[in-house]
TrEMBL record:
<dbReference type="Pfam" id="PF11807">
    <property type="entry name" value="UstYa"/>
</dbReference>
<protein>
    <recommendedName>
        <fullName>Cyclochlorotine biosynthesis protein O</fullName>
    </recommendedName>
</protein>
<dbReference type="GO" id="GO:0043386">
    <property type="term" value="P:mycotoxin biosynthetic process"/>
</dbReference>
<comment type="pathway">
    <text>Mycotoxin biosynthesis.</text>
</comment>
<comment type="similarity">
    <text>Belongs to the ustYa family.</text>
</comment>
<dbReference type="InterPro" id="IPR021765">
    <property type="entry name" value="UstYa-like"/>
</dbReference>
Length: 174
């Protein structure tokens, strides 16, 4: 099982605003303020430390331990890990930035187009896997005159605030 599962709680079902044209703190033309909001929801989290026994609980083979990124013993040992939710937020943020390549051009120059392409293919596939694995079966309806879903539908999910603060590093905005 996931080690952090005991730290999360589910929120009451709530309406998600699916309107095509809307504003929120994580959406819009790129700006330092929007980038800070993405850090606040989890992109600024520190990795967590796992040990070999944790891998057994996660059904990972002992053979994999040698290929994983290890923390030097003088720093306490163990393995570096990230909670999947934060990895997927990183993937989504990578695509957000790719859609505004002209704003985030330095990242493309520093890493290169081919490396970015490989990374984005990975992110697309991870998001696909996650959506298929945790498929929300809430029906959504559509308007006749617009190819967009009904503005609000009720969904249930994790209370994001219950697990983000415990893993977030200081971003200078709190």
């Amino acid at each position: 099982t996931a080690p952090a599962l005991s730290m999360v709680t589910y929120e009451e079902p709530r309406n998600l605003d699916a309107a095509i044209v809307q504003t929120n703190r994580c959406r819009g033309i790129p700006s330092p303020e929007i980038d800070v909001e993405w850090l606040k929801i989890g992109l600024g989290t520190q990795p967590i430390r796992l040990f070999k026994d944790d891998l057994k609980k996660l059904d990972n083979s002992d053979k994999l331990v040698m290929t994983l990124h290890c923390i030097f013993e003088e720093f306490g040992g163990g393995l570096i890990a990230m909670l999947e939710a934060f990895h997927l937020l990183h993937c989504l943020d990578s695509w957000r930035k790719a859609s505004y390549k002209e704003y985030y051009i330095q990242g493309w120059i520093d890493i290169g187009d081919n490396s970015k392409r490989i990374h984005h293919d990975h992110c697309i596939d991870m998001l696909r896997e996650f959506i298929m694995c945790t498929a929300d079966v809430t029906p959504i309806t559509f308007y006749d005159n617009l190819p967009s879903p009904l503005r609000k539908t009720t969904h249930a999910g994790l209370q994001h605030a219950t697990y983000v603060p415990q893993f977030r590093c200081y971003t200078g905005t709190e």
